[in-house]
Amino acid sequence: MKTILITGSNGLLGQKLVCALYRDHGYRVIATSFSPNRMDDEGYEFELMDVTNKIEVDYMFDKYHPDVAIHTAAMTQVDTCEKKRTECWQTNVESVKILLENARKHNTHLIHLSSDFVFDGTNGPYSEEDTLNPLNYYGLSKQESEKLVMKYTGPWSIIRTSLVYGVNPSLARPNIVLWLRYAL
Q1: Cβ neighbours of residue 59 under 8 Å, at least 6 residues apart?
Q2: Is 138 a residue of the active site?
Q3: Phi and psi dihedrals of 103, rounded to 5?
Q4: Which helix (H) or strand (E) holds 141?
Q5: Which residues of 4-16 are buried (b: 16+ CB within 10 A; e: fewer)?
Q6: pLDDT at 90 over 90
Q7: Mind listing the pLDDT tens digit for each residue in 31-88?
Q8: Which of the following is catalytic: 27, 137, 138, 152?
Q9: Rounded Cα distance, 50 and 35, in Å
Q10: Structural domain containing residue 124
Q11: For the chain, how many structural domains are there in total?
């Protein structure tokens, strides 16, 4: 049975991945987040882990030896990233360095979640070969994290999301679906 470690498991995408992978596919799923678990489901393991803390990440990789690590943890609020650039860089770039170091050590396939904010939005739709031109600090941080992943000599994937949305009442902050629901 493959072991999959998911960072950012309290976020919308992280929660959906955890449920889909252990329920529908029978993988051993290790869900991680820097804050206490928000899901009541059983069938997966939850561990507190701050992706910016090398000791914690090293411990998780040494403990579980994941076959795949899906990195969904990120600082994604664009305005906050502009105001808190150091925190943004730590969360979105430095964490990737730590994860890649561990992925290399354990031959883990790293799946890195990025964003269409790496583009300027003027010439879409975009392909993987298009020139990156971020217009804000969040986009820059995702561009730099992608560069790190692309240098990794082990197995890797980058998934660029556009807008992640869905209904999930256990989220710490609302998303577009919940904003609309509450506005009606």
Answers
A1: none
A2: yes
A3: -60, -40
A4: helix 137-151
A5: bbbbbbbbbbbbe
A6: yes
A7: 999 998 888 878 899 999 999 999 999 999 999 999 999 999 999 999 999 999 999 9
A8: 138
A9: 8
A10: 3-183
A11: 1
The CA distance from 24 to 57, in Å, is 27
Could you give the percent of the chain with pLDDT greater than 70? Answer: 88
Contacts of 145 by beta carbon, 8 Å cutoff, 6+ apart: 92, 93, 96, 112, 114
For 79, the token pair is 């305005």
CATH of residue 71's domain is 3.40.50.720
Q: Which residue has the tokens 């799923």?
A: 29
Q: Is the distance from CB of 118 to CB of 143 less than 8 angstroms?
A: yes
pLDDT 10s digits, 115-147: 998 998 898 788 888 899 899 999 999 999 999
Give the separation between CA 181 and CA 176, rounded to whole angstroms. Answer: 9
H-helix or E-strand containing 108? none
